[in-house]
Structures are given as C-alpha cells and as structure tokens.
Design brief:
Blueprint: E1 6-11, E2 16-21, E3 26-32, E4 44-46, E5 52-56, E6 62-67, E7 72-78, E8 83-88, E9 94-99, E10 104-109, E11 114-118
Antiparallel strand pairs: 1-2, 2-3, 4-5, 5-6, 6-7, 8-9, 9-10, 10-11
C-alpha cells in the first residue's frame, strides 16, 4: 500500500496472492485465485487510489481484480496467452496487459472489466 502498511506478493506455485503486514513483517492473508499450476499469479499492481489490486496469471490467461479493503476477488477478465506484465493509464481507467507467446497487448476498461481492444 502507498502508506507502507501492506504488501501484496504473488505466490506463483500456490495460485494465490499473499498479503503481508509490512510493519510487523507477518503474513495476514492468502487470497486464492484458482487451481495451482493452472492459475500462476505473476505481476501485481495497485490502482492509483489503492482500492484495487490487479494480478496477471501467466498460463491462466486472465487478469484478476482484488478489492484491497476485503482482500476478495471481485472480477477477472480473459486476456491473451500468458499475461505477465501490466500497467495502468495515469487516470487508472485503462489496464494494459502484455501477453507473452501471443505477442500482443490487451487493453481493459477497468470500470467494466472488459476488453476494450487487443493488438
């Protein structure tokens, strides 16, 4: 989190995102995203207002959205093959997913959690 209170860490082999109390340096939650080995959390990225966490899933072909207040998955969107890197537009309204083997980029409308464009 921007205030240094929490950190979110991908646990690729477990199919989860781990939430850590950054002050006490202790794990406080584990957020399951799906079947380990199929869903492999890769990149994690906070929204500008820190209310959402976006997580790419490699072989899972998805980007998950997690509500940081509840640490619950609130949605996912299917993107290209093996999404690894992600970025947000400065206003936080558009998410960009770099998709490895498919050699393309998915553009996601954050408000609707739908693909706006694939290139």
């Amino acid at each position: 989190m921007p205030d240094g209170s929490r950190a979110y860490i991908n646990a690729e082999n477990d199919g989860t995102v781990v939430v850590v109390d950054a002050v006490k340096r202790k794990m406080i939650a584990s957020i399951p995203l799906g079947k380990p080995g199929v869903i492999k959390p890769m990149a994690v990225l906070l929204s500008p207002d820190a209310t959402k966490l976006f997580v790419t899933t490699g072989r899972g072909h998805q980007v998950f959205t997690i509500d940081t207040a509840t640490n619950k998955v609130v949605g996912s969107v299917e993107v290209g093959a093996r999404p690894w890197g992600i970025a947000l537009s400065p206003d936080g309204k558009t998410l960009y997913s770099a998709n490895g083997p498919s050699n393309d980029i998915s553009v996601v409308d954050v408000a609707t959690n739908r693909i706006a464009l694939e290139r």
